[in-house]
UniProtKB/TrEMBL annotation:
Coiled-coil region: none
Source species of the chain: Streptomyces koyangensis
Keywords: Transferase
Protein name: N-acetyltransferase
PROSITE patterns registered for this protein in UniProt: GNAT
InterPro entries: Acyl_CoA_acyltransferase (IPR016181), GNAT_dom (IPR000182)
Residues in N-acetyltransferase domain copies: 1-138
Keyword Transferase in annotation: yes
A Pfam cross-reference name: Acetyltransf_1
Length: 156
């Protein structure tokens, strides 16, 4: 989707994240319809995007949230948060149980994310504990523990 690529390219210093989105879109094992979320202004201008794709924790399905992108002119106005919230709502409605994010530890807790180590979930690479976070979407359902297996386009 060209508009998503434009948003992601504008939001990051290189095209690496936009290329990642394209690769994830092309990967049938990663892509989940409805979990590439865009937000727009009242006049229809697309301003933000959040992508949730399939990953696994010790063989159990989970979601990886990455990347989240907002056009620079619309940053810090709630577009990213709106995309994340809409994606989390859709993930819940699809029966997903766990979302993982590697990101800013001062931002993602506002959506309910907490250090993934609380559930004994870890990455296969070195990462600060506070930067790898998890959110359970289905209270009462067991949360898998173990190492995250990201979709191949992530390269980890």
């Amino acid at each position: 989707m060209p508009a998503v690529r434009e948003i992601v390219t504008a939001a990051f210093p290189t095209a690496e994240e936009a290329d990642l989105v394209d690769a994830l879109r092309a990967d049938p094992e990663a892509w989940i319809d409805g979990l590439s979320v865009v937000v727009e202004t009242a006049d229809g201008t697309l301003t933000g995007h959040a992508l949730f794709t399939r990953c696994h924790v010790d063989g159990s399905p989970a979601l990886a949230l990455a990347p989240v992108a907002v056009l620079p002119a619309f940053q810090r106005q709630g577009a990213g948060a709106a995309a994340i919230r809409a994606g989390l709502d859709t993930a819940r409605s699809l029966g997903e149980n766990l979302v993982l994010v590697f990101g800013h530890p001062e931002y993602y807790p506002e959506f309910g994310f907490a250090p993934a180590s609380r559930w004994s979930v870890r990455a296969s690479f070195e990462v600060p504990d506070e930067a790898l976070m998890a959110l359970t979407l289905a209270p009462g359902r067991p949360v898998p523990s173990g190492v995250i297996a990201y979709a191949a386009p992530f390269g980890v």
